[in-house]
Specification:
Radius of gyration: 19 Å
Shape: globular
Strand order of the largest sheet: 10-9-8-13-11-12
Largest sheet: 6 strands, mixed
Structural class: alpha/beta
Strand content: 25-35%
Number of strands: 13
Amino acid sequence: MTKKIAWVTDTAALLDEVFIKEHNIHVLPLSVVFEDGSLRETVDMTQDEFYDKLRKTKAHPKTSQPAIGEMVSLYEKLKEDEFDCAIAIHTSSQLSGTYQSSIAAGEMANFKVYSIDSKIGSYPIMKMIEYGQKLIKEGQDVESVVEKIQDATDQTALSFIPSNLSQLHKSGRVTGTQALLSNLLCIKLVISFDNGKVEMKEKVRTFCKAKKYVTDQFRQEMQKNPMKEVAIIHCNNEKEATCWKVDLQEEFPNLNILVLPLSAAVGVHAGEGTTGLSWVTF
């Protein structure tokens, strides 16, 4: 008998409304905590409203995972709607407690939840959902599908270039002196996900050199694992992302290149203007 499976994620994936509706995804919102209160991403604020508020705020906001009560309510509702189980793919457990909360919420709701630590965020989570749903349609059992998605978490990449170090300084990731010197000297960092953690991979002068470094990483991967698609991700910087797309399209004319916004949770730390590349090889 075919199981009725619900698909769950959080706004670290920042799926667009068309994808959510087409794939019937249940999305739990991350929150940004400002001085005057907490706002849920995509529910209480749009991307434009978030960046407008970020520019005006003096105290550095914090990010918060979805409330466990909200997760429990979702799983109880899925059980009432006669779903047999849920596959929940969440942002890296190294950056958020959402994955762990998903496990606990499933137990509290007495509902079977296959919680998966994506070890990343953004575009790769979308591809994991597509991949998993494809496998289900092919008739594979849910345990096998979950195992294959878990294997796929090691076949993803996401590298980004913060526009400046001001937000990273405010969030405590770099010192004030480092931020001041890097901005004066036009130093750019390349930050990448590595087994769930966010690590600095390169430090160069100028954005062009940083972009070249990331593009070179993608080019090398393309030689080993030819891909049909890549995503250019950004924090309210569609103009620069589109320029990057034009450059990539010239080199890879048959490549499908998406331009996707990053979650506000990334924008809080990386800052407005951040851009990067993301791809998967599964």
